[in-house]
Specification:
heterodimer, A: about 450 residues, mainly alpha, two-stranded antiparallel ribbon, B: about 550 residues, 23 helices, about 75% helix, globular, disordered N terminus
């Protein structure tokens, strides 16, 4: 039997990332100082970002596709990777977690996400998802001696495993109905068939599994504990990467495979979106730990991004992608400030920050207003874009609900601003800065402001 | 913690003197040549104006704010002086709007148009007409006064304060000039950030509560308007162009819904009853400059929004809902005035009087006749001048005594004679004494109110009476009666020249508008006429409208 060697061009980014990840795993054994490994990771991500536009097409017997949709998501993942490494370099040393595996796992997780975005087949999708998930489970628990970190890892692992099981169950049902795992062939098959209860069951199971990944209510329970327990740099990574990857597969599977069931899955996602915005925004108000607050805020943001999916149009999909890119900048930026402070996990640690470190406070203010969605920041552009798509698709009432929750969100974001600017210092705030961390903060704050003023840079 | 409250009086006096000498030296060396150059550039050149006026007056303050951010925070006098110079320069640069404004047309003038976000059809479009031009000038003027009045009273985070002030100036001028809804919304919301900080950082004891309340109230309203804006966008053929929207006729039911969506934003800003509760807190707690901007410009933006958007965009809905709006206005007039009678805090009293006065403004606007609308716009300007001046006055005396309780004063006229004279004029203007600007505005509005409905006219007129009662009561208790011992023995000085210079422009305007309102009314004639036609002809079939066009 003659098996032709597959065309590797479309998969070059994934291949490079995986190879470098493997190399880092080995190099870690001999490297005394682990930071160079991080820089290798950044360089790799930069090279891959440069290669993204040339690696287009289908390969591996049509199981893998690299199109503009996946490329945009890969861009988000790579930006996420670069920024995460930048904020990690000093932080994990301080947290005594600078194992070489750290960078390797970040790269593996990114490779998994990229595979998810490019999956044209449910098997590849699952492969990517597990690669991403397993790597992030370990990352969450990388502070081996910290009990909270351990708790985060085990919780994430158990619930993640549970959601993977649901996904597999849904996929096997789908395979049973359609006799194929190719997403586009499933769509063709479903076009000719009536909707059956089993099909709806399989669709719901898959929706639930993805809702786990994007931390949408009522499948968000893991997020606050995991975000709080994991090292802050990993939290930043997890709050953007896996979420965006989840959205990438939601777009692919529901817009393509379940195209015919649009009215059904729209109803499911509307319920999830409303619940997600409600839970995220309302529970964030009462948090006293900023990582937990940002966890709930990231749940809420999944709700806004879902509006783009619900719109059911290309415009909606584009809006969702833009939203996630903008979200990546502002969320990692906020986490970078949390890392910058020597002791910055409690909200009261921010009291009087504007007095002792005016610039840091001003930057945090930009991120907080951006997360609220106040112009002229990028956060506003993201929200506006999503709202526009949803209204154009006829979901004005849903947008009204979204803006009301958005106004509620102002309360807890502004509380940080209030603590920084309007309260007096309770104790001296120390900041631990490094060139890499400052670089990450600089990149994110500039991105947030520039996109806010010149949105043409990101809107598709 | 209120930082202003803990400095000894001696310290303040000393600072004042130092400021004085510094003032004179720098005026001679720095200001005069700068102003002279700008003057020649801007106004006296007989040729075409060489710079885009509106963009300049929007972005000069914003650039100035960035410049101030870069200054060394130790160098306080440089920060203050640059802020003052920038705000004065901005006022001078805005002068062509006064000298070269064509009063005969209702079209937009000084128009600038550039592509901004092509894929959404968003344009960077600016322009002013008779409705907006006065507010641009007023904003530029009041900012200067805010700088001078804060000169010694702001002692903490000076750099941030003056930068925030300039950011507010730029964005509020932008709000009045925007001809693109997207641009309008950006600036409308962007202004919340510095304003929130202004109240929350430099305000009084209860400032955090006031700042958050202000922000949340406004944000909820604005976000509902945002939904309306997007709906409007899709029904105007994917365009945010306000001028195009003014020519589009939307279905009646949609007009009603959109009217309420925009109403949510503007009613909170005005503020109309029953969403006015943020105003007394925000006004009372804000630093003087913040109160002046709130009273002078920010709450005008709500009424301006009605004029610019609700009326021309949803004319049929406006006609249908005008009675409801007038009822809300009259409730605000009377309710606000009655509440004033019970106030013990100087600033809070003036804040509630704003609710009452803005009730007059919205009453005039929704009377939907020329007198009412012209009176409404003029009263917006008047209220900006008079209430702005009253807040400046309260700020001036608060800086000395550190109390706002009316009961802590009494016989202030003997202690501060010049001050009491100024305060008297503004009190009477607020009451609406003939000869002052307040009279012209209220007279026109009540005239318009009577034309629309006798009952509304009568009820509004009772508001004037109660207004006289609380303002005169206030004046009597603060300045006359027996001299309060608390005011004696501290060596409080009367107003210094800086403070007199701050109040003088407003004093002149009070009499100018009071005696010869036509200078300002003439700006708005054509635009108001145009607006009323738009509202009145709405709902008629297209053919009828065309016939009217032909007849004209």
């Amino acid at each position: 039997m003659n098996i032709p060697f597959p065309d590797l061009t479309p998969a070059i980014p994934e291949i490079i990332i995986s190879m470098v990840a493997t190399f880092l795993l080995i190099a870690e054994l001999v490297a005394k100082n682990k930071s160079p490994l991080g820089y290798i990771g950044i360089a790799t991500a930069a090279i891959v970002m440069y290669l993204l536009p040339v690696s287009r097409g289908e390969t591996f017997g049509g199981m893998f596709i690299s199109d503009s949709y996946s490329t945009y998501f890969k861009l988000i993942f790579l930006i996420n990777l670069i920024l995460t490494i930048l904020i990690s370099l000093k932080y994990i040393h301080k947290e005594k977690a600078d194992y070489g595996e750290y960078y390797s796992l970040l790269l593996f997780a990114t490779a998994g996400m990229m595979l998810m975005a490019s999956a044209k087949d449910l098997i590849i999708l699952y492969l990517g998802l597990e690669l991403m998930a397993l790597s992030t489970y370990i990352l969450a628990g990388i502070k081996r001696h910290d009990i909270k970190s351990n708790e985060a890892a085990i919780k994430y692992f158990l619930l993640g495993g549970f959601s993977s099981a649901l996904l597999l169950y849904g996929m096997s049902l789908l395979y049973g109905i359609t006799t194929t795992t190719d997403i586009y062939k499933i769509a063709q098959y479903l076009q000719q068939k009536e909707t059956t209860p089993v099909l709806l069951l399989s669709m719901s199971l898959i929706a639930v599994a993805f809702a786990f990944k994007i931390a949408a209510a009522p499948f968000h329970m893991w997020a606050p504990d995991v975000y709080e327990g994991a090292p802050t740099s990993v939290t930043a990574f997890m709050s953007v990467g896996p979420k965006a990857a989840g959205f990438a597969v939601i777009g692919r599977v529901f817009y393509v495979a379940f195209y015919n069931l649009q009215t059904d899955w729209t109803a499911v996602f509307i319920a999830i979106a409303i619940l997600t915005m409600a839970v995220g925004n309302i529970l964030a108000i009462v948090q006293t730990n900023i990582k937990r607050m940002l966890a709930y805020s990231s749940i809420a943001h999944a709700g806004y991004a879902l509006l783009g999916v619900i719109a059911g149009t290309n415009e909606g999909l584009n809006a969702m992608m833009t939203y996630l890119l903008i979200y990546a900048f502002m969320n990692i930026g906020a986490f970078a400030i949390v890392i910058l402070l020597h002791k910055g996990e409690e909200i009261k640690d921010y009291d009087g920050l504007a007095k002792s470190h005016p610039l840091v406070a001003a930057i945090m203010l930009v991120f907080m207003f951006s997360l609220t969605g106040i112009p002229p920041t990028a956060g506003f552009i993201g929200k506006f874009n999503v709202f526009m798509a949803a209204i154009n698709a006829g979901y004005t009432w849903l947008v009204v609900i979204a803006v009301i929750f958005s106004a509620i969100s102002a309360y807890y974001y502004l509380r940080i601003v209030m603590n920084m600017y309007m309260k007096n210092m309770t104790e001296e705030v120390k900041i631990i800065s490094s060139l890499a961390l400052s670089g990450a903060i600089f990149i994110t704050v500039i991105a947030v402001l520039v996109i806010g003023i010149i949105p043409s840079l990101v809107i598709i | 913690m209120h930082d202003n409250g803990h400095n000894s009086t001696e310290h303040t006096v000393e600072n004042g003197k130092k400021g004085q000498s510094c003032y004179q030296v720098l005026t001679a060396v720095f200001i005069i040549p700068t102003l002279a150059i700008l003057f020649f550039l801007g106004i006296l050149s007989t040729e075409q104006i060489k710079y885009p006026v509106l963009s300049t007056v929007i972005f000069l303050p914003i650039a100035g704010a960035l410049f101030i951010f870069l200054l060394n925070r130790q160098n306080e006098s440089l920060i203050k002086w640059s802020c003052l110079v920038i705000s004065i320069a901005n006022f001078i640069l805005s002068m062509p709007l006064y000298t070269r404004f064509d009063k005969t047309t209702a079209n937009m003038q000084f128009v600038e148009r550039h592509d901004w976000i092509p894929s959404w059809g968003v344009k960077y479009a600016l322009g002013v007409d008779g409705i907006s031009v006065l507010f641009v000038l007023l904003s530029a003027l009041l900012t200067i006064l805010c700088v001078t009045v804060s000169w010694t009273s702001i002692k903490d985070k000076i750099k941030e304060f003056y930068a925030a002030l300039l950011l507010i100036e730029g964005s509020m001028i932008g709000v009045f000039c925007s001809l693109d809804l997207f641009l309008f919304y950006i600036l409308w919301e962007a202004m919340l950030i510095p304003m929130y900080l202004l109240i929350g950082v430099w305000g009084g004891p209860n400032r955090i509560y006031a700042a958050i309340k202000f922000f949340l109230f406004t944000l909820v309203g604005s976000l509902l308007m945002l939904v309306g804006i997007i709906v409007l966008y899709f029904n105007t053929g994917n365009s945010f162009d306000i001028l195009q929207m003014m020519k589009t006729n939307y279905p009646y039911n949609m007009q009603i819904l959109l009217f309420w969506a925009f109403f949510a934003a503007f009613a909170v800003k005005v503020p109309m009853f029953p969403v006015h509760t943020w105003l007394p807190d925000a006004h009372t707690e804000a630093p003087t400059a913040g109160s002046v901007i709130l009273a002078g410009i920010l709450i005008k933006m709500g009424a301006y929004g009605f004029l610019r958007f609700n009326m021309p965009l949803f004319p049929e809905a406006t006609k249908a809902l005008a009675p409801a709006m007038m009822v809300l206005s009259v409730v605000a007039i009377i309710y606000g005035a009655v509440i004033c009678l019970g106030q013990t805090d100087l600033k809070r009293l003036i804040a509630y009087s704003s609710v009452s006065h803005m009730g007059f403004v919205t009453l005039g606007l929704f009377a939907l006749n020329p007198q009412g609308i012209q009176g409404g716009i003029l009263q917006m300007v008047n209220h900006g001048i008079v209430t702005g001046a009253l807040f400046l006055c309260v700020g001036i005396i608060y800086e000395r005594t550190h109390t706002r309780q009316i009961a802590d004063y009494g016989g202030a006229a003997t202690v501060f004679p010049i001050y009491s004279a100024f305060f008297m004029v503004f009190t009477l203007a607020s009451v609406g004494l003939p000869g002052t600007n307040g009279f012209i505005g209220e007279f026109l509005i009540i005239l318009g109110g009577f034309t629309a409905s006798n009952l509304m006219g009568v009820l509004a007129a009772t508001g004037v009476i109660i207004g006289a009662a609380y303002m005169l009561w206030l004046y009597q208790n603060v300045f006359f009666v027996e001299t309060n011992p608390k005011l004696l023995g501290h060596g409080y000085g009367d107003m210094d020249s800086r403070e007199i210079l701050t109040l003088l422009p407003l004093l002149i305007l009070v009499f100018w508008i009071g005696v010869y309102p036509n200078t300002f009314l003439s700006f708005m004639d054509a635009s108001v006429q145009n607006l009323i036609e738009r509202v009145n002809t709405a709902g008629q079939p297209q053919v009828a409208q065309q016939i009217i066009e032909v007849i004209k």
